[in-house]
Design brief:
Residues 11-79 form the HTH gntR-type domain. The chain has 358 residues and is α/β, with parallel strands linked by helices. It contains 14 helices and 10 strands.
C-alpha cells in the first residue's frame, strides 16, 4: 500500500501517514478486524523510516482506531456505529482515578519569573496597552504555531479568540449562536457549564453517557442545535469518548447542520503521553468550535483561554459579539506568547507527565 508523503509540507510525515490511514478506516476501506500492512512493508512503500510508521500506528492505537496484537500486527478496532443504545457497566464507567489527576505543581517558579522579567524588559510600556479585540497578534500567532506543530490543527490568526477563562468563552459562544436555543450537555458534566449557558438564556438538555461518551440514542433523541462535549477525560465522569463515538458526534452535527462546542480542557495531560485527535481537526464541514485553557497546564491563576472558530462562523462572530474587548491583560498575553514560542509549554507538559510516571 502506498501513501504519498508531501516532503514540502509542514505536517510531519508520521502525521500524514496517520491522517491517511485514519481517513481510510473511517471511509470503510479498512473494515473492523482488518489487518493493516506490516510496519516494515509500509515504511518501504512510503519511502520513510520505520519509526515514522511506528509512531503513526501508535497514534491510531491511542485514538482507538486500531489495536496492536503481540507478534501479529496492527488490526482495525474502529467500526461504524448506528444510532442505537449502548449498554454500560454503571459501577465502573463514572469513576475517576484520583491517582492520575495531574496538577501543575512541578512548573518551576523560577522559569515563570524569568520569562515575566524578559517580557517586561522586551515589551516595556506596551504591557500597559489596551488589548486589541480578540487578543494580541503575538499570542494568537503563537497559538497557531503551537497547534500546527503539536495538535495537527491549522488555523489563521483571525480564527483565534482570546478570553479570560473557558467560562467567559462559553458565554461568548451562546451569545453568538443565539440565546434561547437548546444546547445538549453531557450528563454528568462540570456544573458551571450548565450554569453559564442558562445564565445566557439557553435551554440545556442533559444527555446520558456510557463508557464511550454520550449515548447514541440520546443524541438521536435530543432536538438540540448545539452540542457541548468534553471528549477527553470529561469531568466528573472521567470518560474519554472513543474514536467511533467522536465520529458519531461529527456525523450528528453534519446531518443536523448543528454546532459542536469542543471543550478540550486537560487533554494535553492525556495518560498515554499523546494528546488525542480533536474534533476540530477531524471536522471537514466547519461544524466545530474549539475551546482550551492554560489554567491547568500552567497555573489556575492564569485566567487565559482561547477559542478557535471555523471560518464560516467568523462573519457571525463579528456581527454579534465582535465588539467585545479582550478581557486578558497584555502582560499575560505577551508572557504566554513567549512561553509557547520558546518551547517551554511543551517541556512543562512532558515534565509533569514524567513526574507522574505516565
Amino acid at each position: 500500500m502506498h501513501i504519498r508523503i508531501d516532503r514540502e509540507s509542514s505536517v510531519p510525515a508520521y502525521m500524514q501517514v496517520y491522517n491517511e490511514l485514519r481517513n481510510r478506516i473511517i471511509s470503510g476501506a479498512f473494515v473492523h478486524g482488518a489487518k493493516l500492512p506490516s510496519k516494515r512493508e509500509l515504511a518501504r512503500d512510503c519511502l520513510v523510516s520505520l519509526p515514522t510508521i511506528e509512531h503513526a500506528y501508535q497514534l491510531l492505537c491511542d485514538e482507538g482506531f486500531c489495536e496492536m496484537r503481540l507478534r501479529s500486527g496492527c488490526y482495525v478496532k474502529y467500526a461504524v456505529e448506528s444510532f442505537f443504545p449502548v449498554s454500560a457497566t454503571e459501577e465502573t464507567i463514572f469513576q475517576i482515578d484520583r491517582d492520575h489527576i495531574l496538577h501543575n505543581d512541578n512548573i518551576p517558579f523560577s522559569s515563570v519569573a524569568a520569562m515575566l522579567r524578559k517580557v517586561i524588559l522586551d515589551y516595556g510600556e506596551r504591557i500597559l496597552m489596551k488589548s486589541p479585540k480578540g487578543g494580541c497578534s503575538q499570542l494568537r500567532d503563537a497559538i497557531c504555531r503551537y497547534l500546527s506543530r503539536c495538535r495537527n490543527i491549522n488555523v489563521s490568526r483571525e480564527q483565534v479568540i482570546i478570553g479570560s477563562g473557558a467560562e467567559y468563552l462559553y458565554g461568548i459562544c451562546i451569545q453568538m449562536l443565539g440565546r434561547g436555543k437548546t444546547i445538549a450537555l453531557e450528563s454528568p458534566s462540570y456544573e458551571k457549564i450548565e450554569a453559564v449557558y442558562k445564565a445566557n438564556g439557553a435551554v440545556c438538555d442533559m444527555l446520558e453517557m456510557d463508557g464511550e461518551g454520550i449515548r447514541t440514542d440520546e443524541l438521536s433523541r435530543t432536538s438540540a442545535e448545539i452540542l457541548h462535549v468534553t471528549p477527553f477525560n470529561s469531568f466528573p465522569s472521567g470518560v474519554t469518548a472513543s474514536a467511533k463515538r467522536r465520529q458519531v458526534y461529527l456525523e450528528w452535527a453534519y446531518q443536523r447542520n448543528a454546532v459542536i462546542i469542543e471543550d478540550d480542557y486537560d487533554s494535553e495531560y492525556t495518560l498515554n503521553g499523546t494528546a488525542p485527535q480533536t474534533l476540530f481537526a477531524q471536522s471537514e464541514n466547519d461544524h466545530v468550535i474549539y475551546i482550551n485553557t492554560f489554567s491547568k497546564t500552567i497555573a489556575p491563576s492564569l485566567r487565559v483561554a482561547y477559542m478557535l472558530l471555523p471560518e464560516k462562523l467568523l462573519p457571525l462572530y463579528e456581527q454579534t459579539v465582535g465588539f467585545y474587548s479582550c478581557t486578558v491583560p497584555m502582560l499575560e498575553q505577551f508572557f504566554l506568547a513567549e512561553w509557547l514560542d520558546s518551547g517551554e509549554f511543551e517541556r512543562t507538559i512532558n515534565r509533569v507527565r514524567n513526574t507522574k510516571k505516565i
